[in-house]
Specification:
The protein is an alpha+beta fold and 157 residues long. It is built from three helices and six strands, in the order ααββββαββ. Strand 1 and strand 2 form a beta hairpin. It starts with a helix and ends with a strand.
């Protein structure tokens, strides 16, 4: 069984690195947008405008990642306990034949992947297709994946 606290620590570290990356990219794009060489030379020259759009998008991504960091830091203060069914805060193993896949159900940061103790873990949200299939299920329940393959919930943590 994976240690849920270590998984949450790993996701938090990944998200903190993402925040730093997005902020650095936003600063670079903002500097480019206001650079003298980005000044429009004619009505068709949109380099400065495009750089400002990019800076705004990177800033939004940084803010979203910061919100996710706050959620995961809160979980670090009090790691969610495993319940009888899959819900937000559940670390679950889905088995398909001999292969296993680990997922952490969270309200945000869906798609974040990390390796913990040699095992790949993917964060999914309850609103994702897989999240909708798993939330409310318990150990031993079978599910039909979007690909049509059948899998079974092996563990909840």
């Amino acid at each position: 069984m994976l240690d849920k606290k270590r998984v949450i620590e790993g996701v938090t570290a990944r998200l903190e690195a993402d925040v730093a990356l997005y902020l650095r990219a936003a600063r670079t794009a903002a500097a480019e947008a206001t650079d003298e060489q980005s000044k429009a030379e004619n009505k068709y020259d949109t380099r400065g405008l495009e750089a400002s759009y990019l800076a705004r998008g990177q800033s939004r991504q940084a803010a979203e990642a910061e919100r996710a960091v706050a959620v995961f830091r809160g979980w670090l203060a009090r790691v969610p306990e495993a319940g009888p069914v899959v819900a937000e805060g559940t670390l679950t193993c889905l088995a398909q034949g001999r292969s296993k896949a680990w997922y952490l159900v969270a309200p945000c940061a869906g798609g974040t992947e990390l390796e913990c103790d040699g095992v790949e873990v993917t964060v999914i949200t309850p609103s994702s297709p897989l999240g909708r299939l798993l939330v409310g299920r318990k150990t031993g329940d079978g599910v039909v994946l979007p690909s049509g393959a059948e899998a079974r919930i092996r563990e909840l943590g």
